[in-house]
Amino acid sequence: MDLEEDIPPNHLVRVVNAAINRLDDAIFESAYPGGGRDSYHPKMLAKVIIYAYTQRIYSSRQIAKAVRENIMFMWIAGRQRPDFRTINRFRSERMKNVLEAIFTTVLQFLVEENYVKLEHYFLDGTKIEANANRYTFVWGKAVVKHKAKLQEKVQTLFATIEEAQQQEEHELAAQDLAVLGETSSLTSEKLASAVQQLETRLQENPKDKPLKKAVRILRKDLLPRLQKYEVQQEILEDRNSYSKTDTDATFMRMKEDHMRNGQLKPGYNVQIGTENQFIIGYSLHQRPTDTRCLKPHLEKVKATLGKLPGTVIADAGYGGEENYAYLESEQLEAVVKYSTYHKEKTRTWQKDISKIDNWQYDEAEDTWTCAAGRKLIFRYESKETTEGGFEIRKRHYRSESCEGCPLKASCTKAKGNREISVSLRYLRYKQHARERLRSEEGYALSVRRMIEPESVFGQMKNNRGFRRFLLRGLPKVSLEVGWLSLAHNLLKKAAVDQKQAMTAKG
Asked: How far apart are the C-alpha atoms of 149 and 147, rounded to whole Å?
């Protein structure tokens, strides 16, 4: 039976087949070093997985079942029947160094055929739940607190041993304490060395019951716990939590709240950039907020595409001083809101005399004039360093005198004179962003942003039902996002082609 006859000319499966057939076979060479029995052709497996993702089929077992039973899958697989292990191994292991090259090549095809122009980059993020138990959490602050208490117990225990010994043994106990060092610098290696010395002393005097009890507590309880806390801190790095089931997942607040109590769930922050609702770039992050994801995301896109689109459009979640400085250094036109952009338009904000946005700044004298007409004089400059290593310089000003000011109650709750701290560079960035957003082109782009990445996330999570990852670990989950992005782009291409064909007929 010829399956070709049962597939319509403009069917999605033909779009996937044609797109993957255009790829150069050399792209897959690094995934197949050679040796062993003959393998399935990587293009065939890639077609099967991408088409499965467009059909809301994500399980490797369900994909293998579709290859046996579904005509479209039979056709695109060439009547071959790879089992679920082969499909999963190809998806999560063989393609780890190849998938981005495939995504970039397919994107180049879209650029050549004028589906995208790489002029505008609409950036946004969403949180997707990890394939992890929701209740096997480890909190960073709890680990630090428990480790500090354990270190105090160790010091107390060694002090007790020293008191229990006779005068001639004081020096030996002091040596053990010296090995431990300060409480804050106590490590499992130091504690293991001290326990070993105590065990040597116990062999010399096996009837010493206090020492025997202390060694047992250290060996069976305190040392293993300290080692466990150190492993947990190593996994956490600079995060505040992780799941024991998937240690790369961080606990985040999701919109899908099944218990309706604001429960945190393990997940990943997926960042994508779109144009014409095609995904131009994607990245995966372990941070719940979008602010610190902009720079690593754009760096990844730059490394993948070789350049960045000329204009970046994003919402207020990305509007920090560090991000504005990065966009300026990359010579990118930014249409990025800051946190108070919409509040500044309200009448309440504009009449609030406590806001320095409603004050006047004299650049020549470096002074601020408040609503009452009193000047705030520069006092000193301070520096703050963000987690990303960016330096923020703040200038501090103080009023000459607020005594007798009739507006003081509305201006500040401080008993003394009014003080403010300002980053002049951030004010400059905000002014530039304000002008860009209020321009005709900037306003049009900011409105268009609402239907760009948001629509793509809606397609993924609602229409195609992808609300939870199937794989575990940052590398494998990143691959899943890559497969999703590829499937979305080809699905979007098929929809655009179909719409154009209907328009031509009509």
From this structure: 5
394 with 498, same domain?
Answer: no
Tokens of 373: 């007409």
The CATH number assigned to the domain holding 451 equals: 3.30.420
Reading phi first (left if > 0) and then psi (alpha if -120 to 50, else beta), residue 262 is in left
Map residue 461 onto helix, strand or coil: helix
**What domain range is 359 assigned to?**
349-423
Separation of CA 420 from chain center: 33
Closest by CA to 154, choosing from 126, 122, 192, is 192
**What is the pLDDT, as a whole number, of residue 139?**
95
**Residue 333 forms part of a structural domain:** yes
Q: How far apart are CA 158 and CA 163, in angstroms?
A: 9
The conformational region for residue 479 under phi > 0 = left, psi -120 to 50 = alpha, else beta, is: alpha
- Indicate the length of the chain as a whole number: 506
| Burial of 460: CB neighbours in 10 Å, binned 0-12, 13-18, 19+ | buried
Instruction: Name the residue among 39, 21, 23, 20 with its Cα closest to residue 31.
Output: 39
One domain, residues 149 and 228: yes
Q: What is the pLDDT of residues 167-183, one digit of tens each?
A: 445 455 555 555 555 55
- Largest separation between any pair of C-alpha atoms in the chain: 103
Please state, in angstroms and rounded to a whole number, the distance separating the CA atoms of residues 372 and 57.
Answer: 66
Nearest residue to 195 (alpha-carbon basis) of 228, 150, 157, 163: 157
> Within a domain: residue 51?
yes
Residue type, 233: Q
Structural domain total, the chain: 4
Tokens of 145: 């607190």
Integer angstrom CA distances of residue 63 from 26, 399, 483: 26, 70, 14
Task: Specify whether the CB–CB gap between 326 and 295 falls below 8 A.
Answer: yes
Distance CA 431, CA 334 (A): 12
Q: Which two tokens stand for residue 479?
A: 């691959």
- Residues of the chain predicted below pLDDT 70: 1, 35-37, 164-184, 258-259, 506
Q: Work out the angle at residue 133's Cα, subtended by the Cα atoms of residues 129 and 135, and round it to the nearest 5 degrees.
A: 110
Secondary structure of 16-56 in HEC code, one letter for each residue:
HHHHHHCCCHHHHHHHCCCCCCCCCCHHHHHHHHHHHHHCC
- Structure token pair of residue 292: 């610190």
Cβ–Cβ under 8 Å, residues 421 and 395: yes
